[in-house]
Amino acid sequence: MGIEFNTWEQAVQWLRQQPEQQELVLAAYYDDPLPASADRYSRSEEWQAIRALLPPAPGRALDVGAGRGIASYALAKDGFAVTALEPDPSALVGAQAIRGLAAASGLPIEVNQEFSERLPFADAQFDVVFARAVLHHTSDLAAACREFLRVLKPGGRLLAVREHVISRPEDLPAFLDLHPLHKLYGGENAFLLQQYEAAIRAAGFRLSRVLAPFESVINYAPYTEASLKEELAARITRRFPGAKGLVAGLLGQAPLWAVARRVLGRIDRRPGRLYSFIAQRP
User: Fold this and answer.
1) How many CA atoms lie within 13 A of 212 on its CB side?
2) How far, in Å, are 71, 129, 146 from residue 121 at the CA level?
3) Is the pLDDT of residue 2 over 70?
4) Residue 50 contacts by C-beta under 8 Å, 6 or more apart in sequence?
5) pLDDT, tens digit, 9 for 90 and up, residues 186-231
6) Domain segments of the chain: what residues?
7) CATH class (in words) of the domain with range 8-216+269-280
8) Which helix (H) or strand (E) holds 184?
9) How many Å apart are CA 72 and CA 88, to the nearest integer?
């Protein structure tokens, strides 16, 4: 493409101006007005699946790498007292955008500009640390996980969702080359699955669940479960389109869908595929 920008804000501004990229803009929640975009996220299948993994009783939540604040908004809307951690000061994709969103929505979102590896909080302050597509951006994965543990209360929960995974280090250049936004500004990365798991456990967490790419809508959004089944049926029957309805019907049966997801999880080796991690401070 040959286009490079000095800031993430500039890259996103350019992306939003490209007519052929509007589907990606919507999928990444970069569209305006921001309150409407954030509300759409809070009503998405992805967030409903995340909400089922959060503590039933809202408490204090830290949203690290909060970006525009869509998850901060969803957490606050569900009753959490939210602190959004975002080092970028941008009014489009950073801390100032979150402040504007909090003011427009009237939700209790406190904003702090700092990096995940050095959290400016005392020990045991939060019931939840939420990180959406954050760990793969960290300069020190192990240090970030240790900080997450430190600021969580005993029994507190870490949700690190939509993290890019590669099968071997040699796959990283291929992933970066295919990523639609990396060429604009850089900053993307991916780790081996074992690296994420090791860093979380070494920090002192009890890793309770690892969600594979097709195991939860958290990972395969912006597809919904229904649209993913439709897409899979279309691909399976590409040479025999008349069988699409039959295959779609089979995928609609819960036992067969569960088997299909397990099979897809075993054969999926795409560089940068998404995993999610749920862990608890003992």
Assistant:
1) 14
2) 20, 12, 13
3) no
4) 74, 130, 159, 161, 218
5) 889 999 999 999 999 999 999 999 999 999 999 999 999 999 999 9
6) 8-216+269-280, 218-267
7) alpha beta
8) helix 182-185
9) 15
